[in-house]
Here is the input.
Amino acid sequence: MLTVTTVNVNGLRAAAKKGFVEWLAATDADVLCLQEVRAEPGQLPEHVREPGGWHVVHAPAAAKGRAGVSLYTRREPERVRIGFGSSEFDGSGRYVEADLPGVTVASLYLPSGEVGTERQEEKIRFMGEFLAYLKELRERAAADGREVLVCGDWNIAHRQADLKNWRGNTRNSGFLPEERDWLSRVLDPAEGGYVDVVRALHPEAEGPYSWWSYRGRAFDNDSGWRIDYQMATPHLAARAVKGLVERAATHTERWSDHAPVTVVYDR
Here is the structure.
């Protein structure tokens, strides 16, 4: 079995003080993909930066206190790559990948965007470059007899079933028609060629949501968004036997505004 978890920690130093360390000690995951770490490695306590039993690669953003992705793996990676060959985005702390036996696993933090601002233009540029890389990665892996798994905060809800209040968000970044169409291209067998693993396991479910605003009673009312995905090449996706969101029991027990998304694959 291969168990993979992805979670946006919303600041790893803060999460470590609120329960992440205890969660990490208890998890059965073989691979952990973190996003929005928002810290340089030297700013993290040693037991978070390099916990016992894990091999860790951190990819912080050049802009201090922003973005940042990390990969924690039980096995030492055969190869690590930070960024995807983009002159604009490779220093932004948004992508890291590692080769493990038979599979390349990546942690992605796609820009969140904001309609009518440069942040949305940045998101669109990222999406354009990244889709091209996803296709290249899949083709390269196939030639090497490898599978690919890209996990992370994609900051797009693909379908109406992926957010509670979809009617109120049709003009907001994260649920714009052009963003959803782009994600459809990622999943199109004739283009990106990836599979949304959790949706494939739960085709008719509302959600399961992985992010809830801290405002109001969004968490208590399960008024959330499903924006944290595990996107796999088809043969790996077909071997997924269980996928779940590790939702905290109560609002006060949360250590991030996102919850871990975990999938178990039969290798």
Observations:
- The helical segments are 12-18, 20-26, 46-49, 118-143, 177-187, 197-201, 234-237.
